[in-house]
Design a protein that fits this description.
heterotrimer, A mainly alpha (377), B alpha/beta (421), C alpha/beta (714), B: FAD/NAD(P)-binding domain, 3 domains, 5-stranded parallel β-sheet, C: alpha/beta, FAD/NAD(P)-binding domain, 18 helices, 30 strands, 28% helix
Chain lengths: 377, 421, 714
């Protein structure tokens, strides 16, 4: 038996957790139905029963450094079967949301993204920044001739901002994820770890790309398609942007707008469609579920996905339809969403793409994820 | 108090242990009582029990005393196969309509059994939860009170067969008997319609009805009872094998807001008691009790200690939330997290007993009175109410002792209504 | 009363097929009956009419009905002011023995003779009715149970006298800051409503309240208790018809819980102390008066612990959930920890648990508290193992509350102070950990002092709401006993019986057996040791009759003579006939119905056994054994209820006493060089009917080994 561990419940953490989607966590009475019905948990020290009591007891550090939290894909089989309405799936989702906050670099950014009170600030900053930028380098009046968004704000200006934002986000993300990894190592200890991070990462990638864990869910099967759409929608959008920027603009010197028949353009449009369809599936599910709860983090992401996709598409069609009256306004909105996307990526729910990958890598290292038959084989 | 004085009448609805108690206790103070029971016999759920916890004494013993009290007391009048259809009026003066189903066997019945020997039709025995069968004419159970046979209308072929009518020397069988309506005038009403076992097939994770040899605790009572389907030998329903390993699944439907949000009070004690049934017949058997909290309040604790001391009984903290059939043997496999042991357990056993809870009978059919109910159909009694009362498991899941105490109090409340007049 | 006997033999239900009815009727004709009739359907309208007509037209006043068990058709064969003896030819003869067999016929004939013999000696009971029955109920204890009982008694039109030891009414409820919700949805703590109950009681003209008073003595019997109350004004004497004992509980002595630091650290308190503190203001640390920002509760502080209280106190889980809730209500930043073994919130209280735990500042876990020590600055460190957090934990708290348990007041105080020969309190409380509980699941108000009903927490650990329910029932039982004794009838389990034991005291030798052995303390004694009967205390079990070596205790319809003559009525065949005869004295409550069940199931057993139903095995006098053996009976079975701690005897001690007495009989048999096992005592439950054939067969085999009774023919 290990040493007695001094336990000091963190009331603030409990309050934050409740706000981040875990408001039902105190209802748990530790029957462990959740651990039994979960198709993703290992047999040894299964989740999410133990996470539930840690959450109830405000055991912040323990939860935030628990790789099991990232094995959970929130199919909510446990929440459906929970006899107390404690919704363990949502509680684990809240822990993940809390991770974005807790490991955030700089930390205040985590707080900003954690609740709606900061929304004016969070939206106001890019709004003002873009406004000022357009004032300096752009032009609100649409000139005669072909409708081109580069007339509104020049491509170098846009690239200047967004490439900077992109790298800042990558740095922030790296710092946050590094903190997360260290914390997991600290709590887990060296014992029982197997292999090195990179090979482990590579070994889990196929599973992630195939969305294998989503398929294990009994309840909520639609989420597999929803997440798949959004996931590959983003990958497609990122690829489109990357090719246009690096190959076309800077490499070949071919400037936008690109014709609709351009294969890269087509990829972009398909990706936007995937994003929107995915987001639609997820949203419909959220509204149709009997007592499904969604946190601020969830809604922020859904609004962002819709916003990016819709304003992107709208800008394109407005340009093709030559609807000069609203073109720049819509494009401005699109730029705003893209700004939000990059600037807040390490702190919003989007950050899970890094945290989950890292968490799952650690879980592989700690041999916690060998549940799915494919993994064992 | 002289016998002749008419103090007023009390209607007691439900002839289980609580209703019986209310009726007899009030009658022994000197009041006339009408006891209305849905089944063809009195005794209700406890008549189906093999033993009471914690004394492990037969419920028939206490029922016998209560029936003796009825035999000696003409103030208790009982109607079986009867249900109250309507109650109108006010405290002290209620008009009650009771619908009495056709028993098709009249008071001439001597319980000689000749009709059963003649009857060609079988029916599933609901008293034993369908684990065996009786003829279409049958004695509800061997210790039934009143000791009178009854014909299952649904199973009986009617006058086209009438073999029983020929067999009966006493003109006791009347296949043309119709349902009857009885009107009563009473001063107060006590609702004691008790409970039903929660329908285990509603709990989709626990395999009841799908996985063989998953039974409920009430079925276990019948399996262990001498007058049960197996003559008291505990056997697996699928193949008659004597189970060597048995898992008890506590809170099967209770303490669960998807089913019954409340705790059914008796199931922990019932499972401990049933562990003694199993170990008495097979001391080498292994009994596993999966629980959330072991609830043996008060002096029941002593019973828990006794059972715990048996090394063949293992208590595991963790609720079973999955039962499947082993693909090879077909045996049930229970899955739970052994919380104190630190991992998921997948255990193959010979037999599983689901400790299902008590659902008030009023969940299915409300009383024709203006009671309020909670979401599970439990009667929410207004402490200020006069004239109409609820008692026992119709308002709160309790053990027999608590139910009887409450029933005794309900008798007083019913009497007070009359005193006020 | 000049007896005019009618014998009615039913031939229905296979009786006529199994027996030679002509022969039986002929035998009946020799029994001095005015009328002997047979009928093929005696329990039918016509059959019953036959008897009725004979009663009214022929003046028949003593009826022997040779038909089915006395347990059926009780309503058909119910003729007022007539002596009725039922001879069970159906379940006990025709259905359980070979039809048209010589032995079966002999059995039926013996039963008929025995029935007639009994009927001839039985008399109609005349109730013993005392004058001036008091319709006042004495209630001891002014807590929630006592207050409720007194109020309910008064609401039913009877008077109550309430005696409370303390200066204030209300008991522990009066010390409560908040109470656990009693009503759906069981979510919010309730304000204690005891104040309203107290004023209702003090304002009721039919309730007389004595505070700062104690019951010094209760003498007499139900309907006529004479109660001496020691009040501040001096001794007061009053009468009462019944007694409700609601003296409640006291907290377990926390000084014995030094393992949790009580007495050592000032910041360790009990749940009772916590309640008082909360009632009086903020929750603080006793050591320095600083606000308690964190409070830990240890459940089962002494309970469920063989070294302290082996039982569970039922309400402490609810109590700690309540206290944790108000710790948080009083200070939104406070923390409350509860360490439990099992969270016990049975029934709908589960809903309270559910609502209480849904508070961010309440921390619950199963666990065993292994140590309590001092931390920094007046704090306490509580170490807990086997927790649900997956590892041992320790918490630092300002205040530690021990959820101590309930100890019944009866544990060291008789409370009742009965002026009874058998002592001032209720007997056998050690069976119930000192609680004044009933041993019967289905009869929770049973006590071994007639007319005395323990209720509330003195009976078992109960919540306030449960106490109210319990006390309401106790009020009914108190009223019921008053009504019963006012018409000279017995209460449970022989409710309605108007017989009572007659003592022919001229022949009493003051052996005190009856006064010592009565399970209900019915008999007092004068200074010489002569019994002083108190008929209203009597439960009519007949255990005194069984005890009396002088055979001077008898009931009108159950006496030494009646049963002795039934024994004599048995025809004992000559030794050469090789037909052993066995008498089985069977308890009419359980063993007799078991034999009925055996008959219903057509189980077959030896026809050489003659059953004699008795009120209780304790109501078997050894003289009947001697008479039987002297008459050449080969063996005697005594079949009664289980005895021991979990006794099933409805008279508590009957079967145990029978066993004790039979040991003595067996010693005597050994002295007489008779096999002691010729007298066999057996414990049988009502549902053991399936075992009866083998029990009897085994006994008959054993008896066979002994050979015939050597006294046969003397």
């Amino acid at each position: 038996m290990s040493e007695h561990h001094i336990v000091e419940p963190d009331l603030k953490f409990i309050k934050d957790m409740k706000r981040a989607g875990g408001d039902s966590m105190k209802k748990c009475f530790q029957c462990a139905t959740c651990s039994v019905v979960c198709n993703l948990t290992p047999d040894d020290s299964p989740f999410p029963r133990k996470e539930m009591i840690w959450a109830q007891w405000g055991q912040k550090d323990r939860l935030l450094s628990d790789p099991d939290v990232w094995l959970c894909h929130q199919c909510n089989d446990c929440s459906e079967k929970c006899p107390r309405g404690a919704r363990p799936g949502d509680v684990l989702g809240a822990v993940r949301n809390m991770s974005f906050q807790h490991f955030a670099f700089p930390r205040f950014m985590g707080t900003w993204l954690s609740r709606p009170a900061y929304l004016p600030l969070v939206l106001g900053i890019p709004f003002l920044l873009l406004w000022v930028l357009i004032g300096m380098y752009g032009n609100w009046t649409v000139p005669e001739g072909e409708l081109k968004y580069s007339n509104f704000l020049s491509v170098p200006a846009i690239e200047g901002i967004y490439i900077t934002l992109f790298f800042l986000a990558v740095i922030a993300m790296a710092v946050g994820v590094n903190r997360f990894w260290k914390s997991m190592v600290h709590y887990h200890g060296e014992k029982g770890l197997m292999g090195a991070p990179v090979p482990n990462l590579l070994s889990i990638l196929p599973g992630i790309l195939a969305h294998r864990r989503f398929k294990e869910c009994d309840e909520n099967k639609e989420r597999y398609w929803g997440h798949l759409g959004i996931f590959y929608g983003f990958i497609g959008a990122a690829t489109t942007t990357g090719i246009f920027t690096v190959v076309y603009y800077y490499g070949l010197g071919i400037h936008s707008p690109y014709p609709m028949s351009n294969p890269v353009k087509m990829l972009g449009n398909v990706s936007a469609l995937a994003l929107l369809v995915g987001a639609l599936i997820v949203t419909v599910k959220r509204f149709s579920g009997d007592d499904k709860k969604s946190s601020y983090y969830d809604w922020s992401l859904i609004v962002l996905v819709f916003g990016l996709g819709l304003t992107g598409w709208a800008s394109q069609f407005i340009r093709l339809a030559d609807m000069r009256g609203i073109a720049y306004q819509v494009y401005f909105l699109h730029l705003l969403f893209v700004f939000y996307f990059f600037a807040y990526l390490p702190y919003s729910k989007m950050a899970h793409l890094a945290y989950r990958t890292v968490g799952m890598t650690f879980a592989r290292q700690a041999q916690r994820d060998l549940v799915a038959k494919e993994d064992i084989a | 108090m002289s016998e002749e004085k008419n103090l007023g009448s009390i209607l007691v609805v439900g002839g289980g242990i609580t209703g019986l108690t209310t009726a007899i206790e009030a009658a022994e103070v000197g009041y006339d009582v009408y006891l209305v029971e849905k089944n063809p016999y009195l005794g209700g759920r406890v008549a189906q029990l093999n033993k009471y916890f914690p004394k492990l004494c037969p419920p028939a013993c206490g029922l016998e005393i209560n029936f003796q009290r009825i035999r000696k007391n003409p103030k208790v009048k009982y109607l079986t196969m009867a249900e109250v259809e309507s109650v109108s009026g006010q405290p002290g003066d209620y008009d009650v309509t009771v619908k009495v189903k056709a028993r098709k066997v009249n008071e001439n019945c001597t319980a000689c059994n000749a009709c059963v020997e003649a009857c060609p039709v079988d029916r599933l025995n609901d008293f034993n939860f369908g684990m065996d069968s009786t003829k279409a004419v049958y004695l509800p159970h061997q210790m039934a009170f009143p000791m009178r046979y009854v014909i299952d209308e649904k199973a009986c072929k009617g006058s086209s067969c009438a073999k029983c009518v020929e067999a009966c020397k006493y003109d006791a069988i009347d296949l043309e008997m119709e349902a009857d309506t009885v009107n009563l005038k009473v001063g107060s009403v006590v609702w004691a319609t008790g409970w039903q076992p929660y329908d285990a097939s509603q709990i989709d994770t626990l395999g009841y009805g799908k996985v063989p040899n998953v039974v409920t605790n009430m079925m276990m009572e019948r399996l262990a009872a001498g007058n049960g389907p197996t003559g008291g030998q505990i056997q697996r329903p699928s193949d008659g094998k004597v189970p060597e390993t048995i898992a008890f699944v506590q809170c099967a439907g209770s303490r669960d807001e998807n089913h019954l949000a409340y705790c059914s009070y008796i199931c922990c004690m019932a499972s401990l008691k049933q562990a003694t049934y199993i170990l008495e017949q097979n001391p080498e058997a292994k009994v596993y009790i999966y629980y959330i909290d072991l609830r043996t309040p008060g002096r029941y604790e002593k019973f828990l200690k006794t059972i715990e001391a048996n090394e063949n009984v293992v208590m595991i903290k963790g609720k079973v939330a999955n039962i499947t059939a082993d693909p090879e043997s077909g045996d049930p496999v229970v899955v739970a997290e052994d919380i104190l042991g630190g991992g998921l357990v997948r255990q193959k056993v010979d037999m599983v007993v689901l400790a299902t809870g008590m659902q008030p009978s009023t969940a299915e059919k409300k009383a024709p009175l203006d009671f309020k109910y909670d979401e599970h159909g439990l009667i929410l009694e207004d402490p200020q109410a006069v004239g109409v009362y609820a008692t026992g498991c119709a308002k709160n899941p309790v053990d027999v002792t608590s139910g009887v105490k409450d029933a005794t109090g309900a008798a007083l409340k019913a009497i007070q209504t009359m005193v006020r007049r | 009363m000049e007896k005019k006997l009618g014998i009615y033999i039913c031939t229905g239900c296979s009786i006529g097929d199994a027996l030679d009815i002509e022969k039986l009727t002929a035998l009946a004709g020799t029994q001095g009956a005015a009328v002997v009739k047979t009928h093929e359907f005696l329990c039918g309208d016509e059959g019953a009419k036959v008897i009725e007509n004979d009663i009214s037209a022929e003046g028949i006043n003593t009826v022997v009905i040779a038909a089915c068990s006395q347990r059926v058709n009780f309503d058909v064969f119910n003729f007022p002011d007539t002596i009725i003896e039922r001879v069970n030819l159906r379940e006990h003869v025709a259905w359980s023995h070979t039809p048209n067999d010589e032995d079966t016929q002999m059995l039926a004939e013996d039963y008929l003779r025995m029935g007639v013999a009994k009927a001839k000696r039985m008399e109609l009971p005349e109730p013993h009715i005392e004058e001036d029955i008091s319709r006042t109920v004495l209630v001891i204890g002014g807590g929630i149970s006592g207050l409720t009982a007194a109020l309910e008694v008064a609401k039913t039109g009877y008077d109550a006298v309430l005696v409370e030891k303390e200066a204030e009414l209300g008991g522990f409820m009066n010390k409560m800051y908040k109470v656990v919700p009693r009503r759906y949805p069981f979510a919010k703590l309730e304000e204690p409503s005891i104040g309203a109950v107290i004023s209702e009681v003090t304002g009721d003209p039919n309730i007389k309240v004595y505070t700062s008073s104690q019951v010094e003595k209760v003498a007499g019997q139900p309907g006529k208790f004479v109660v001496t109350i020691a009040s501040p004004q001096g001794a007061v004497e009053t009468t009462a018809g019944a007694v409700i004992m609601a003296s409640g509980w006291k907290p377990y002595d926390a000084n014995k819980l030094d393992k949790y630091g009580f007495g050592q650290f000032p910041n360790v308190i009990t749940n009772v102390m916590m309640e008082e503190m909360a009632k009086n203001g903020p929750i603080t640390r006793p050591s320095d008066g600083a606000p308690a920002k964190s409070v830990a509760f240890i459940q089962c502080a002494g309970q469920r612990d063989e070294e302290h209280l082996p039982y569970c106190s039922s309400v402490c889980c609810l109590g700690s959930l309540k206290q944790a809730t108000y710790v948080r209500e009083k200070d939104a930043n406070a923390k409350a920890y509860i360490f439990y073994k099992d969270m016990r919130t049975p029934g709908q209280y589960e809903l309270f648990y559910k609502s209480a735990q849904d508070d961010e500042g309440i921390f619950l876990t199963k666990g065993n508290v292994t140590s309590v020590g001092e931390g920094d600055g007046n704090s306490l460190i509580v170490e807990v193992e086997d927790t649900l957090l997956g590892e041992p934990v320790k918490v630092s708290v300002d205040l530690l509350v021990l959820a101590t348990g309930m100890v019944p007041t009866t544990v060291d105080d008789p409370v009742l102070n009965l002026a009874y020969r058998q002592g001032p309190g209720l007997p056998d409380l050690e069976l119930y950990n000192g609680f004044a509980d009933s041993n019967f699941i289905c009869f929770p108000y049973e006590s071994r002092r007639t007319g005395v009903f323990p209720t509330g927490a003195v009976k078992m650990p109960l919540s306030g709401a449960e106490s109210i329910e319990d006390a309401t029932g106790a009020a009914l039982k108190a009223i019921q006993v008053i009504e019963a004794v006012s018409v000279g009838k017995a209460v449970h389990p022989r409710s309605g019986d108007s017989t009572y034991p007659d003592f022919f005291l001229q022949r009493c030798t003051q052996c005190k057996r009856c006064t010592e052995e009565c399970p209900f303390g019915t008999l007092d004694e004068d200074e010489k040791g002569t019994p002083l009967p108190n008929p209203n205390r009597c439960r009519r079990c007949g255990i005194c009759l069984g005890a009396c070596p002088e055979r001077i205790i008898n009931f009108k319809n159950y006496s030494i003579d009646i049963l002795a003559s039934a024994i004599k009525a048995i025809n004992v065949p000559e030794e050469e006939e090789n037909k052993p005869r066995v008498i089985a004295f069977v308890c009419e409550n359980d063993a007799y119905p078991a034999f009925d069940m055996a008959g219903i199931n057509r189980l077959q057993y030896s026809p050489n056994v003659r059953m004699i139903p008795v009120r209780c095995l304790g109501a078997v006098n050894t003289v009947w054994i001697a008479d039987s053996l002297a008459a050449g009976i080969d063996g005697i079975m005594m079949i009664g209820c289980k005895y021991g701690d979990d006794y099933q005897c409805h008279y508590a001690k009957g079967s145990e006493l029978a066993n004790y007495r039979m040991e003595k009989v067996q010693e005597t048999l050994n002295r007489l060089v008779l096999e002691s096992d010729r007298v066999k005592i057996l414990q049988l439950a009502i549902d053991d009917y399936d075992k009866l054939p083998s029990i009897i067969d085994e006994y008959m085999e054993q008896l066979d080994g002994f050979g015939p009774n050597p006294y046969k023919g003397f």
